Amino acid sequence: MNDLETPRLFLHPMTPADAEHVAAGAPPAGARWAPGYPSPGERGAASRFLATCADTGDPSPFCSYEIRLRADGVVIGGIGFHGAPDERGGVTIGYGLVESARGQGYASEALRALLRFARDQGVARVRGDADTGNLPSQRVMTAAGMRLVGEDAALKYYQVEWATR
């Protein structure tokens, strides 16, 4: 599977070997990871990806992706699907960036690319959530075209839907 490209980023589909390194927090030879990568969230996503691969096979293209800078290939975070589309064509996404990469529009750029990709794959609905106090993540989803559809004491829920083809 090929990288998804944006003007400033490559979204690199994670292989099981990549995920093993991320889950262990140990970069493979030659990898360029930004300080702070992988976060505990990224390590957890990599572990879930490995569990899915073991249980049902590689879920690609509905997998995890490393967010890499086009300029130098440094991995600054991750984005991806929590699994393949459900019976109604819906998926859930998650993302995260290292501290030094935040506030520069990278997360919105990566999310817009992932949403376009999901739509091109025939996905009807994409869901995501953010902690109620995580205003930057809420702004990322809004900037990428997702709308607030609900909230509870802990989370705000966002979604984008497309007409089925």
Walk me through what this model shows.
Helices cover 30% and strands 28% of the residues. It is an alpha+beta fold and 165 residues long. It has a single domain, classed as Gcn5-related N-acetyltransferase (GNAT) (Aminopeptidase, 3-Layer(aba) Sandwich), CATH 3.40.630.30. The chain has an eight-stranded mixed β-sheet. Helix 1 (16-24) packs antiparallel against helix 2 and helix 3 (106-120) packs across helix 4 (135-143). The longest helix has 17 residues, at 40-56.
Concise summary:
The chain is an alpha+beta fold and 165 residues long.
Number of helices, counting only DSSP H or I runs of 4 residues or more: 4
Structural class: alpha+beta
The succession of helices and strands, N to C, reads: EEHHEEEHEHEE
The shape, in one word, is: globular
Using the coordinates shown, work out and report the CATH topology. Aminopeptidase
Helix content: 25-40%
- State Rg: 15 Å
What distance separates the N and C termini?
Answer: 24 Å
Count the domains: 1
Beta percentage is 25-35%
Largest sheet: 8 strands, mixed
CATH architecture: 3-Layer(aba) Sandwich
Low-pLDDT windows of residues = none
The CATH homologous superfamily is termed Gcn5-related N-acetyltransferase (GNAT)
Give the integer mean of the pLDDT values: 94
The count of strands amounts to 8
Main sheet strand line-up: 1-2-3-4-5-6-8-7
